[in-house]
Amino acid sequence: MATSLTKDSVRPDTPGSGKTFFGHPRGLATLFMTEMWERFSYYGMKALLPLYLVAPGGLHMSGTAATAIYSVYLSLVYLLTLPGGWFADRVLGPRRTVAVAGTVIMLGHLTLALPTAGTFFAGLGLVAIGSGLLKANISTMVGHLYDGPQDPRRDGGFTLFYIGINLGAFAAPLVIGTVGENYNWHLGFALAALGMALGLGQFLLGTRHLSSRSDVVPTPLSAAEKTAVLRKSALWAAVAAVFYTIVAFSGVYTLNWVLVPITVAGLVIPVLVIARIKRDKELNGAEQAKMTAYIWFFVAAAAFWMIYDQGGSTVSLFAEKSADNSVLGWEFPVSWYQSVNPVMIMALAPVFAWLWVALARRGKEPSTAVKFALGLLLIGVSFFLFLAPLSIADGGHKAAALWLVAIYFVQTVGELTLSPVGLSVTTKMAPAKYASQMMGVWFLAVTAGDATTGLLSIAGVDLNKTGIVALEAVLAVVAGGAVWLYRRKVKELMGDVH
């Protein structure tokens, strides 16, 4: 953790110059707990989601339909981070946007707790909207707590914040998953609502410790712009309402009428956003070259997340049906597998941080392109590993739980190789004009990957089949090989970014 500043070395208007949180501004405790409880609610619901969709006591859908819904939901969450950031920048400011987001998420989980299919999907929509609003802004508020990018506490503060994320993600399946699977699905969703309520309550109580900058609306809409936005929003809402009313009364409505447009948007919007930036004539030659290099990283990340996020759908559904989910004769809920990744992240992240620094001192740290190639290779290896339990299940036997733990372990190592590096290179390669928007562009890689999985599932492709899993594994390894082969060209395009 970074060394704390003394009280006298902090500007008078810097938050947390008095009482601190492990040497950091007091407001970090507020944001740490908010994010921890929000992740508790999010990951708890996410761990239950595919299992509830296929359960006889749930919605009793096919595995293909459950994977489609799960993937489209994740795609929508990350897609909505773009309008979430816009809403804070132009309308409410980060602090009030996060308060609204927490309220919407809590209401969404409460709606999920109601025992009807209609309210369930409405609840999913509310949670996705709230998560998009919150995810885009709470990290920005962490940055506001520090005296600029050069504050030596800044990196340590984000590290603490990241621990909060993973603590919530680790505990959620153990608590919410156990209650949902073993007692009552809807009680599990209600616990997710309780978690968000606790996070929202302490956020509102601790809001006085946050930076005054978090109240600022950076580029507020003018009166004319507000009128135009409201008019366009009302028009599109009316068009959607009329369209879906006609579809419903015609008797041809199915869930795909909602899933397909979201999936297509999840594939088209990322392409349009990157194309718009790439075509911008105001970017100089160096910025254009960096954006060309960034497209390589974006496509690689999309391929990575397409496979990685199946750990919560494809692999989880396999575990529910075909794995021996026990240790020394003691059976545990399937949702507990979703706690493996966060606990491994907390254990391995410091190791990777040390490793990159140690290699850099020796002049041997891999380039960003090589790290991305390694991440793709590892995610491919994880699905090659998946072939073993699939083969065991095809032989009429239950696959051991350790096979699935091994899959999650390899995926976690791949995540640590690619994800933090991707976040870092996104900020470094962002054109000056789009500096505040590029993090949303990075999240669109997750949107594109999950939308691809959703589209395949909607088309009826069973992603739990040996041939499909092998094909995905091969494609990931080939993509990693392509990035590695073109690493020097990509490095050249990156210019002064290392």
Automatic annotation (TrEMBL):
TM helices/strands, residue ranges: 40-59, 65-86, 98-114, 120-138, 159-179, 185-205, 234-252, 258-277, 289-308, 340-360, 372-393, 399-418, 439-461, 467-486
InterPro entries (UniProt xref): Dipep/tripep_permease, MFS_trans_sf, MFS_Transporters, POT_fam, PTR2_symporter_CS
Domain of life: Bacteria
GO biological process, one term: tripeptide transmembrane transport
Any one GO molecular function term: peptide:proton symporter activity
Family of the protein in this entry: Belongs to the major facilitator superfamily. Proton-dependent oligopeptide transporter (POT/PTR) (TC 2.A.17) family.
Protein name in the entry: MFS transporter
